[in-house]
Write a structure and sequence with these properties.
single chain; globular; alpha/beta; 3-stranded parallel β-sheet; 4-stranded mixed β-sheet
């Protein structure tokens, strides 16, 4: 499951490289739907599995669980009033033994302005991500590959902000 897939390449890449794969994407924003129709047309022409895409947002996802859930550069666009609930919903969609991959924009100082702020509902900081990881751990997810790097490692994007990435397994 790729939540908030947009124009993401995870689904198409999996369909191109794997014969026995079922890719599901949830994307509520209509501007991306035509892209997935086009992707599926190309995948079908190549004899590849197609993307099963739906128009759900995080809070309206059905209760199905998945072997892998990815959510890349989505959570920073979620309004703060529902953001914690969205983390909970992501965790619920991971089947026991399954994986969760999350990537969010990360800033060193939320009181400052950054490139692309007009597109974000929230600028995450390291302490906030520590709290989100603790929330996910309380829901049965365990960090893969040792402790996360809790250092701010420079302005990798537009000389303004960076990303926080985490991989977790549900126990």
């Amino acid at each position: 499951l790729d939540v908030g897939s947009g124009w993401g390449v995870v689904g198409p890449a999996l369909c191109l490289k794997m014969d026995d794969v079922r890719v599901t994407e949830y994307e509520p924003d209509q501007m991306y739907w035509k892209d997935r129709e086009n992707c599926n047309r190309v995948l079908a022409a190549l004899g590849r599995p197609q993307i099963n895409y739906h128009h759900y947002d995080i809070m309206s996802m059905p209760g199905q669980q998945y072997d892998m859930v990815s959510c890349v550069s989505v959570m920073e666009h979620i309004p703060p009033a529902v953001e914690i609930g969205c983390w909970t919903e992501l965790a619920k969609r991971v089947r026991p033994g399954g994986l969760l991959f999350v990537d969010v924009d990360l800033v060193p100082d939320p009181s400052k302005s950054y490139v692309c702020d007009e597109m974000r509902a929230h600028n995450f900081t390291i302490p906030e991500m520590q709290a989100r990881v603790a929330l996910l751990e309380s829901m049965g997810l365990k960090v893969i590959g040792g402790d996360p790097d809790w250092n701010y490692n420079g302005n990798a994007v537009h000389d303004s902000f960076t990303f926080f990435r985490i991989a977790m397994r549900k126990v």
